[in-house]
Structure formats: structure tokens, C-alpha cells
Design goal:
Length: 361
């Protein structure tokens, strides 16, 4: 074998050994599945070396062929056509001189002689035993199958267990809940409004994304979270007496109630149209109800300091916040929680006021 084939075989050994022996490290920060763990458990030094050596031998046998100087048998045929005097003269030359003499003689050949020369070369050059080669390849392949069979068996077992686990998770995720009260750690009681069918997985995902990320001091004032399907939200809001008119300021997507300190949300996990901001906004309403002076539904937003800010900077938190002081405070609260730097930039006085209440930064 030439040098390049030897180097390639060595490269195969290094790659196979490296991929197996350092498989755990190659995964990096990726979550290790039970299939990965089954491979890691098998990939000890002995197995890695065995598979790497067998892989290298497989490549060696595949690439092996008897190698000879391609001109050796052609020049032998050319010599057979020369007279004794010509042979003696050529034998007295150096290697390069002999090669030139042979090539000159070859160029003088007739078409028939060229064909005869090719036939001579093909008949006399050493041939690789394909039967032996196939036999060796079969033996090495069989050895690889035997060595890796326990690995494959355990991997398939782990894969079946993993698929079953995914099936059970999907089944649990798709469990339908209707008109139920459910409890999730760290959250107020969650009520699925009658007439709505929601997947428990969607509810948990929504709560993880948009509600659990809210500050505890806001969540602690909320006594109930009512949830529904997006398609039913408007009808439910109207039935609760909520103004849902789209007057150019956007359609209502959530609301809070001072009667029972609850918020009502539509569970839509496939779209993010500022739902975390919406939850922060409604919880700020609850904070307003709970921590105000006690006059009417609203407290903080009816106070002199907030009223002064509202009169002096009515548009700083957007058109919806400018509709009244309650929405103004709720918008400011949502901005403070989710985008404090923006609130600072639009109105530092309002930021300082909310910060004196929320104390987050």
C-alpha cells in the first residue's frame, strides 16, 4: 500500500476511536438522553480500541491492491522484441537512458504490437485475490457486528423506553380540562371557565412563559386566574361587563376584576403578542386595587402623586395608557417590570414613582 492509503487508514482509526471514546465530551451542553447514556456506558477503552482497529482493518482490506511499477511489464514486452545487440546496447545505459530507449522503441510499434503489449501487461501483472479480499471483509464485518451487537441492543431498548416516555408526556400534555380549578406551584388558583376546553400542557406552558415569570409581590395580591380559549374570550369579557371595543387602541386581550382580585387570560401558547406585558398590566391593576387608599375600585391611580404625573406626562406610556389614570399606572407598571430602561427614557419621574412602590431595581 502506498503512503496515502496508510495515512487514510490511520485517520479512520483516529476518527472512530475519538468519536466513541470522547462521545460524552462531544455532546457538550446538550441534554443527555437515555440513548446517549446507553452508548456512554458501553464506550470503554477496550471497546473503543477494538472497534477502531477493526474499522481500520476494514479500510486497509478495501484499499489493498498489489502495486508494481506500471512500466515494468511493458518494458519486459519491449525487450522481447529487441535483438541481442540492441539489448546489450540498452543494458549498458543508465536507468534514464534505458527508459528513453524503451519509449523510443514503443513509439515505433505497429497497432498490432501495441495490442499485444497491452495483453502481455494484463496477463502478467500481479492480481489481487478478490475471493480472499471478500472473505477478509466478511470476517471483519462479522467481528464488528459481534462486538457492537450488545451496544445496538441496549441502544434500541433505551430508544423504545424514550419513545414510550415521549408518548406518555404527549398524552399528559393533551389531557383536556374543562370547568376545573387547578393548582400550580407558586401561582394563585387557576380556574378554567365553563364552556372552555384546554390542554393541561398548554395551560402549564402559558403559565411558565407569561405568569410564573411575574414578580411575587404582584402575584401575591391576585386571588384567582380565570382562563379560557381565545375564541371565547370576547364573549366572556362582554358578559363580565368589560369594554372590549377596538377604538384604535387595540382589542382587549386580558382584564382584571376588583370584585374578587382576579385576572382573566386567554390561553394562546402559539402566539406572542406581548402576553407577558399584558399579564404584568393586569397584575398592576390588582396591585392598584390592593395597595391603594381604599377610595373606590382604584387606589394608587386615584392618588395625588400619580394624578400629577398623569396630567404632566399623559402620553409617555402610549395611547392606551393615556385613556385614564388606572390604565396609565398599569401600563407604567408593566413597563417597569419588563422594560425598565424604556420607562426611564420616556419619563424618569414616573419610573421613580413606580420604583418607590415595586422596589425591583
Amino acid at each position: 500500500m502506498n503512503r496515502s492509503k496508510v495515512m487514510f487508514s490511520g485517520l479512520v482509526f483516529s476518527v472512530v476511536f475519538g468519536l466513541m471514546y470522547w462521545y460524552r465530551d462531544l455532546l457538550g451542553n446538550k441534554e443527555i438522553t437515555i440513548m446517549d447514556q446507553s452508548l456512554i456506558n458501553h464506550f470503554d477503552l477496550k471497546l473503543c480500541l477494538t472497534v477502531a482497529v477493526l474499522s481500520m482493518l476494514l479500510i486497509v482490506v478495501l484499499l489493498y491492491s498489489k502495486e508494481v511499477n506500471p512500466d515494468q511489464y511493458r518494458f519486459e514486452y519491449i525487450r522481447s522484441t529487441l535483438s541481442e545487440d540492441e539489448l546489450n546496447r540498452i543494458d549498458g545505459l543508465d536507468e534514464e537512458g534505458r527508459r528513453i530507449a524503451y519509449e523510443k522503441r514503443f513509439n515505433e510499434f505497429s497497432y498490432k504490437q501495441i495490442l499485444e503489449c497491452r495483453n502481455y501487461v494484463n496477463e502478467n501483472k500481479p492480481k489481487t485475490s478478490w475471493l480472499l479480499k471478500v472473505g477478509l471483509l466478511s470476517l471483519i464485518s462479522a467481528a464488528l457486528v459481534i462486538v457492537l451487537s450488545p451496544v445496538y441492543k441496549d441502544y434500541k431498548t433505551a430508544q423504545n423506553e424514550y419513545n414510550e416516555m415521549l408518548r406518555l408526556q404527549e398524552e399528559a400534555y393533551n389531557q383536556i380540562i374543562e370547568d376545573e380549578y387547578i393548582t400550580l406551584d407558586g401561582l394563585p388558583t387557576i380556574h378554567v371557565i365553563s364552556g372552555n376546553s384546554l390542554k393541561i400542557g398548554d395551560v402549564q406552558k402559558y403559565m411558565d412563559l407569561f405568569v410564573k415569570s411575574q414578580p411575587n409581590f404582584l402575584l401575591s395580591n391576585c386571588r384567582m386566574i380565570h382562563i379560557c380559549e381565545p375564541k371565547n374570550f370576547i364573549d366572556i369579557a362582554i358578559a363580565d361587563g368589560v369594554d372590549v371595543r377596538d377604538d384604535g387602541l387595540g382589542t382587549t386581550c386580558a382584564y382584571a376584576s376588583s370584585d374578587d382580585f382576579s385576572i382573566t387570560l386567554q390561553i394562546d401558547v402559539d402566539e406572542d403578542y406581548g402576553q407577558k406585558d399584558a399579564v404584568s398590566h393586569e397584575l398592576s391593576h390588582i396591585f392598584d386595587f390592593a395597595c391603594g387608599s381604599g377610595y373606590g375600585d382604584y387606589g394608587i391611580s386615584d392618588g395625588a402623586q400619580l394624578q400629577s404625573l398623569y396630567q404632566n406626562y399623559p402620553d409617555c406610556v402610549g395611547a392606551y395608557g393615556a385613556t385614564d389614570s388606572a390604565e396609565y399606572f398599569a401600563q407604567a407598571g408593566a413597563m417597569y417590570v419588563n422594560d425598565p430602561e424604556n420607562l426611564k427614557s420616556v419619563c424618569m419621574d414616573l419610573y421613580n414613582f413606580v420604583n418607590s412602590l415595586y422596589h425591583m431595581y
